[in-house]
What we know:
Blueprint lengths: L1 H50 L5 E3 L14 E5 L8 E5 L6 E10 L2 E5 L16 E9 L4 H8 L3
Antiparallel strand pairs: 1-2, 2-6, 3-4, 3-6, 4-5
Amino acid sequence: xxxxxxxxxxxxxxxxxxxxxxxxxxxxxxxxxxxxxxxxxxxxxxxxxxxxxxxxxxxxxxxxxxxxxxxxxxxxxxxxxxxxxxxxxxxxxxxxxxxxxxxxxxxxxxxxxxxxxxxxxxxxxxxxxxxxxxxxxxxxxxxxxxxxxxxxxx
Length: 154
């Protein structure tokens, strides 16, 4: 009987230790997730500052730039001087979305911009102050996680 009580006590002590370790493990997991989010935010802000644009990383959300860019491509964007043939990202006042299209013409009124896969240019002229940056390079498929977040409203 004495040994049985001793075993039960040892089991209780062991269970308490396991619960403490689980609590520490959860706390550590939460801390690591928070630190990863902070590190990602700092990296993004550093890229934005270094590349001179508020949107240094963009995902392609449509097929308008095929065959050059595809839905789900991740784009690295930087502020630049713009010329005919450049693929740029820009904002239009009539939409909340950032658009990724190519400059096809420059006029006194501004740039004429068109998606490679679109039959007609985008409406109106785009002013240089509407352009957020020029696409530096694309990484295929890496934009899909961003598209998934976008789809759920994040």
